[in-house]
Amino acid sequence: MLTDGDTLIMLARLAAAVCLVLTPLSALSQESFPNRPISVVVPFPPGGMADLSARPLSVSMEQVLKQPVVVVNKAGASGAVGIQNVANSKPDGYTIMVSLVSFSTIPEVDEMFGRKPAYSRDQFTPIALLAADPPVLAVGAGTPWKSVKELVEDAKKRPGEIVYSHSGLYGPSHLPMEMFLHAAGVRMRQVPAVGGGPAMTLVLGGNAAMWSSPPAMALQHVQSQKIRVLASWGAKRHAAFPDAPTLKELGYDVEFYVWSGVFAPKGVAEPTVTILRDAVRKAVAFPEFKTSMAKVQTPVMYLDGPEFKQFLEKDARMLSTAIKRIGRIEDKK
Amino acid sequence: MADTFQNLLLGFQVALQWNVLGYAFAGCVIGTLVGMMPGLGPLAGISLLLPATFGLNPIIAMVLLGGVYYGAMYGGSTTSILMRIPGEAASVMTCVDGYAMTQNGRAGAALAIAAIGSFVAGTFGVIGLMLLAPTLAALALRFGPPEYTALLMMGFFILAYMSGGSMPKTLAMAAFGLLLGMIGIDAMTGYTRFSFGVIELGDGVGIVPVAVGLFGISEILMTAAAGEGPKVRIPKFRELMPSAREFKDSVGPIARGSLLGFLIGIIPGSAHVISSFVSYGLERRLSKHPERFGKGAIEGVAGPESANNSAATGAFVPMMALGIPTGPVTAVMIAAVMVHGISPGPTMIQNQPELFWGFVASMYVGNVVLLILNLPLVGLFVNLLRIPYAYLYPGILCFCILGCYSVSNSVVDVWIMLIMGGVGYALRKFGYDLAPVALGLVLAPMLELSLRQSLAMSAGDYTIFLQRPIALTMLCLGVLLLLLGLKPLLSKKKDWRSKVGLDEVPD
Q: Is residue B505 assigned to a domain?
């Protein structure tokens, strides 16, 4: 059985072959990129944030590049499987990737555990930042705290007693909590879950007191008064939660974004990179792309290659510090 | 009640529109096919279809994906019964007695009972979803890590009854399954265990490649090694329908399986696989002739098949009522409506009644469609057995490999499946029962995670299991089951000793 993606690619290749035969020779001589379908590898399962931004992007990019742009999900090991796959793919511009913040954290964690890293960050050329979504601090309805101040005071009184959950060690909901707790100078216990849904379930069921939730996930539970949002990790207040202050406002110097960005493997020719960057810039401006992103409540934050590179470097330094501070969980016992 | 009726009427108005009906039908057909395909389970089917639904309206997307989900639960039994190849993880238990029935020439009856049981259970599940969603969802939320640990411990006690053969062999196989379940990244410390630098093993060994390898590939190898094809008696047409006795024997298991599956299904955490194991263990325990199990007992097909279907429906309860996914399948379905700007949850039932009630009504319709689809096809499916093995089995092997690969585009999964096929073949030659391996593999990571989560919550204090009423009750039940299981060992000591290691496992 062929997967949808494979079938599509095959059909597209067939179509491309037919086009090639029909194209006058003059057009061919320019060796223009792209002349066949492009695959966008998403190293996460369908339905996640990376997938939900890659799909509308691919639809818009198709219109810009006039070639099929096909999303291929290659999930596994928190993204490491797919990212490694792209790192080792042929750098011809026909394989690109939409990855999340874990792109920067996986090599750090590998290094800390003394493992052979699955890939290194410099195996990639950043093409563009698509979206950056600051998580929000969501506490269960059964908890007493109405503000971060009350929470921190209570946590100071009983260090290591309050329990928070997250979606996986060193992941995009573990790191922001650790950064906040460090800045506030308090200690809590952590209960890892596997994935965001189960982490939220622990909070809803009162088995954990809080977690740093993606805003889109928190919204409906706030409406049904199952959780409260006390703060957000962004530089400015989140549009969906105007009443929740940022941690920066409250005097904690932490900022965290779950971002998704487009990458190409290193070694793609400069003109091809330029074409891809242009294509993403135009695609992001499409109203269809903006509507799709708005529907999944993910704020678009576009940065072109060079600026994205700077953002990445700053972000990676911050994440590296946080990971090293957490250290190996076992060593602490 | 009048409200519910009125709402349901609204739902049927939506569900019976020709285009919605068409998509429900398409979903059921795709689901049945996906379920039959070895290796391809409901998750793979839904994940592959998800992108296609982004262009549809949310009701149609839900109806289509829902149809695939419970259609796969129906379809999963077919290859289990006819060829001992589980179409998806939840039909592993059906392989045991279903295939034995095929060998006895009762394939048609087994398929028919599986379809009828699935229909009853599916319909029961929808009624439960409709009437009890908000109430039950609140209960499901109280199911934290300690309760989950207790449930899984019960699963292990049930494991003790599962095998018809010798106790040491069963325990050895369960231990083998548990060890396989240890592979992968440790969720509590971040260390990788037994992965030997293979990144794909970071997520552990999947149940699908292992089940298809252990049961399916090993069966193909056994047939090839036997020289001549297995002596499967192809039933005559009038033998397709279950006999009156078979019907009578199935009523209890279907009823119990439906209730049990639904209750287990609403618990967050991919419990539908467990539901079929628990139902099998329960039926075997309740049976007056437990020795028939493993040799073609209809109860062993009726119970688990009903349980996995009502669990599939039960899984929608927390998703619809609370917006929390019970497992990967419901997580993907939440994504399917999220892209339309709708978040499932209590607000959705109020704000989008036509979506919720349309979906509920479409599930009634879908179950009828599946029954109509599956009963007449029983005759057709049984004809698969007429294909000479020289053609049938190589074809199945190809489907196994392709299906296994397409789940996560991973060659490593294919290798796992092939290696497990060899392992399964060798173990069966030595008379080991393979079902405990599958159960051990399913339970090990879940039990480990929930046990350690519980202890993380309590800072290492084991009394957390005694302080929570639901957990305590289940643990007591488990201990009771264990004592009941030990009783024959103590009172008939001699008989037990003479059995150890001497009994050949019926295969």
A: no
* Interchain contact, A192 vs B336, CB within 8 Å: no
- Helix (H) and strand (E) counts in chain B: 23, 2
Cβ-Cβ contacts under 8 Å for B331 (sequence gap 6 or more): A47, A195, A197, B325
What is the Cα A40 distance to its own chain's centre?
15
Q: Which residues of A touch B143 (CB under 8 A)?
A: 205
8-state DSSP, B305 = H
Question: In what order do the strands lie in the sheet containing A136-140?
Answer: A189-192, A163-166, A210-213, A136-140, A227-232
CB–CB contact B51 A55 (8 Å): yes
Using alpha carbons, list the distances in angstroms from residue B117 to B31, B109, B261, B489: 17, 12, 12, 34
Residue B507 domain-assigned (yes or no): no
State the greatest distance between any 2 C-alpha atoms of chain B, in Å, as a whole number.
Answer: 68
A219/B190 Cβ within 8 A: no
Decide if A1 and B143 are in contact by the 8 Å CB cutoff: no
Total domains present in chain B: 1
Query: Are the Cβ atoms of A3 and B409 closer than 8 angstroms?
Result: yes
- Judge contact between B103 and B222, C-beta under 8 A: no
Contact A52 B338 (CB under 8 A): yes
Which domain does B292 fall in, by range? 2-499
**A76 contacts on B by Cβ (under 8 Å):** 199-200, 202-203, 408, 410
Question: Smallest CA–CA separation between B488 and chain A, in Å?
Answer: 40
Please name the member of B187, B339, B340 whose beta carbon is closest to the beta carbon of A168: B187
The CA distances from residue B121 to A84, B304, B310, in Å, are 44, 10, 5
The full set of domains in chain A, from first to last, is 37-133+257-323 (3.40.190.150), 136-255 (3.40.190.10)
Virtual torsion, Cα B242, B244, B248, B254, nearest 10 deg: 20
Q: Which residues of B are less than 8 Å from A224 in CB distance?
A: 345-347
Residue of A72, A74, A201 lying closest to B268 (CB–CB): A201
Å between A78 CA and nearest CA of chain B? 8
- Do the bridges between strand B184-185 and strand A300-304 make them parallel or antiparallel, or are there none, so unpaired? unpaired
pLDDT of residue B506: 42
Pairs of residues, one from chain A and one from chain B, whose beta carbons lie less than 8 Å apart = 160
Distance from CA of B184 to the nearest CA of A (A): 9
User: Does the residue B15 lie in any domain?
Assistant: yes
Nearest to A135 by CA among A179, A86, A96: A179
| ipTM value | 0.79
Task: Give me the residue from B49, B325, B408 closest to A75, CB to CB.
Answer: B408
**Cβ burial, residue B135 (10 Å; 0-12/13-18/19+):** exposed
Residue B62 lies in a domain: yes
Task: Mark yes or no for CB contact A189/B456 under 8 Å.
Answer: yes
Mean pLDDT, consecutive 10-residue segments, chain B of 507 residues?
A: 79 87 91 81 81 83 89 84 80 87 87 91 89 77 86 73 67 89 86 84 84 86 74 64 88 93 80 81 83 87 92 86 78 81 74 85 88 81 77 85 80 92 93 84 87 90 89 85 68 45 39
Question: Treating both helix axes as pointing N-terminal to C-terminal, what angle do B272-286 and B145-162 enclose, rounded to 10 degrees?
Answer: 50
Map residue A274 onto helix, strand or coil. helix
User: Which chain A residue's Cα is nearest to B184?
Assistant: A77
